[in-house]
Amino acid sequence: MDAVTDLLRRDPERALSQMLGAYTGLVYHAAAAVLGRSSHEEIEECVNDAFLVIYKSRDRLDFSQGSVKAYLCATARNLAINRLKKREGAQEVSLDEFVSSPSEQTESAALRNLEAEELVNAVLALGEPDSKIILYRYYFDLPSKQIAKLLGTQPNTIDQRLRRALGKLNRLSKGGNRNDE
Amino acid sequence: MTNNHVLRFPTLSVRQTQRLLAGTGILPLPRAAASRIRASVLQKAAPKSLARNRIRRTLVPIAACLLAIIVFFVAFPKAALAVSEFLGRVFTPSRYMNEDPATRTPVPSIDEALAAAAPKDGDYSITLMPDLPNAQEFVDFRAQNGYDPFSEENWGWLKDIRPEIAEVLYDGNQLIWNTNLFTTNEHVREFMEGFGVKSGSKLSVDALMGDVTYTVAGDPTVYTLDVSGHGITPIFDETALATANHAVLYSDFYINSAHPLPDGILTITQNIRVCEKDAMDYGATVAIITHTFTFDTTKGNTTAADGAEAEYPLSGEAYISFDHTEFSEDQLTMTKWTMQTQKVSLDGVKLKVKYEYLPTGILVHLSVAEKPADWTDEMASAFLRTTGKTSANDYQSAGIANVVYIDGKLIGEASQPESWLQGELQYILPVYPDQYADVQSVVMKLSLAYLVTYNGADLLSGEVYTIPEGGSGSDGVVNLIPLIEITVPLPNN
């Protein structure tokens, strides 16, 4: 258990302050990736709700499955996805429902998890820096220029690596070896 | 624009997210957005006991403030709009331009600026992907990334899009415009697919701004404009979407206020990239819309009053909290990241303040004009960071707090527009040109917050805290000392 997660159990108010200091950027970009970057107010509402729901659900969460950071990002994405679904007429449900459950066992969820698991494995198998580039680009929706700045390289290098990494992922999804070129 | 890429992450469990994010540290966020989120979350999360105590502690001051505000509104009715905006929400021109003109709350001076720009459409042309000079690049991208080959059957309708300039906002400091892309309702819905709308079509389409240039009459030079924020504005309301006959492309641009756009009529040529799925993927381009229009910069360059500038020498001693970073030789890895607090002399520090009187408010820009020789760049940069209040109405991070008083009455912390400036601060004060005559004084009271302890380290006694790899929380105890009071010069006063 990391320090912030541990602190959330012992001193929730201090932990919340630390969480906001450390993770606001991550959670913001995770929600923005789903909602689109021009939806400033909706993104901020999702981020606010993610922090609040994790803070208020802290006693019920299983932190052996993931850290506060993971819970925050997963929850923010779920909240953002729900906002999109709402426009299709889905019913509103309690905020607590959006904390990802580690034990979803429905058939469809199992299938989704299988696909997600394979994807996570494949991305991590790419190794650094490609796995991080994929994460920044497709999970956080950061443009090449910003990824380049974060990784201290040129935008066109990021584009080239992205294309190669996507090619590897495509081959992996078809059962190929990740080192195949 | 949503994350509707070639590769999309499905809903991930906490365990999968944990694996994916392992080793991912802090991602940057504009300070204003971070401050808003922090204040909102801490306010809502305040436990009931704390809330009750706060109510007791602040009941009398709140009553006094309400009385003062009521008196203030009665005494200065024209300032009421500004103050209600100030207290009600963070106002930025980009938000105004993202709202539907038919339903947004009007701000008269901004509407005047919109009218003064008087945009007029010129010619346009639409080039489908096969006719673009670098068509092969797009063909290859589609083949390599699982897109269907381009076909006129799927994409021929793009030729029938009619672009039309909707609104241009230019105030000498910011340039924002919206372009309407008229098409059928079916295709508008395809533009909304990325936001989760089910169009019933197999197509999903998106658009972003490509190259943008401008020319001025009598000058053969073609100047470029650098786009900052851009994207299709989502239509969330199903009733509005049912009859929508156009998608709106929002775009804003970097303007160097030291080199504003020239006076007069500018002819803009914008190249809008229309892409399948997500326009962040350049290779997914299916058409380019080249559209020209004109607008008038004259009013935008004519501020409500001449800008003002002043320098304020500081003196005495203070503490500055600052971080220090070191990188590996290849600049790819951060090898050291520390936080410390150091006692410094303010003698020799000059604060430079610039004021711009814009239709969108008074823009205040703070920078350090002069610093003592023994100040490092990191210290100078840290000196003008911003701090924010917590739910307990105190500060937990180092930096400048700016509290604004109008006519002697406390208004609140100054609002900051989105900015990535380092070592400089910007504020937008919601005092509009038609209110200058009614407001007697606007005062910014600046205080400096410094860290006494940080994550348990006693910084005041000289301890240096090493931030672990991947970042850490920021549990700080700070002291706040008054720095300077600045009276904002008002035109007509």
Mean pLDDT of chain B: 79
Order of helices and strands of chain A: HHHHHHHH
Shape of chain B: globular
What's the architecture of the largest domain in chain A, going by CATH? Answer: Orthogonal Bundle
How many helical elements of chain A?
8
What's the mean pLDDT score of chain A? 73
CATH class annotation of the largest domain in chain A: Mainly Alpha
* Alpha carbon gap, first and last residue of chain B: 46 Å
Radius of gyration of chain A: 18 Å
The tally of strands of chain A reads: 0
CATH fold-type name of the largest domain in chain A:
Rna Polymerase Sigma Factor, Chain: A
**Largest sheet of chain A, if any?**
none
Helix count, DSSP H or I runs of 4 or more residues of chain B: 12
Radius of gyration of chain B: 26 Å
Low-confidence stretches of chain B: 1-6, 47-90
Number of domains of chain B: 2
Structural class of chain B: alpha+beta
What fraction of residues of chain B sit in β-strands?
35-45%
The count of domains of chain A is 2
Q: Which sequence of strands runs across the widest sheet of chain B? A: 1-9-8-4-5
Report what the structure shows.
The complex is a heterodimer of chains A (181) and B (493). The radius of gyration of chain A is 18 Å and the shape is globular. Chain A has 181 residues and is mainly alpha-helical. The termini of chain A are far apart. Chain A has two domains: 1-109, RNA polymerase sigma factor, region 2, helix turn helix motif (Rna Polymerase Sigma Factor, Chain: A, Orthogonal Bundle), CATH 1.10.1740; 125-181, Arc Repressor Mutant, subunit A (Orthogonal Bundle). Chain A has eight helices and no strands. In chain B, a hairpin with a 6-residue loop joins strand 11 and strand 12. Chain B has twelve helices and 21 strands. Mean pLDDT of chain B is 79; it is low at 1-6 and 47-90. With 493 residues, chain B is an alpha+beta fold. Chain B is globular. Chain B has a five-stranded antiparallel sheet with strand order 1-9-8-4-5. Chain B folds into two domains: 24-82 and 97-296, no CATH class; 305-487, no CATH class. At the A-B interface, helix 1, helix 2, helix 3, helix 4 and helix 5 of A face helix 1, helix 2, helix 5 and strand 6 of B.
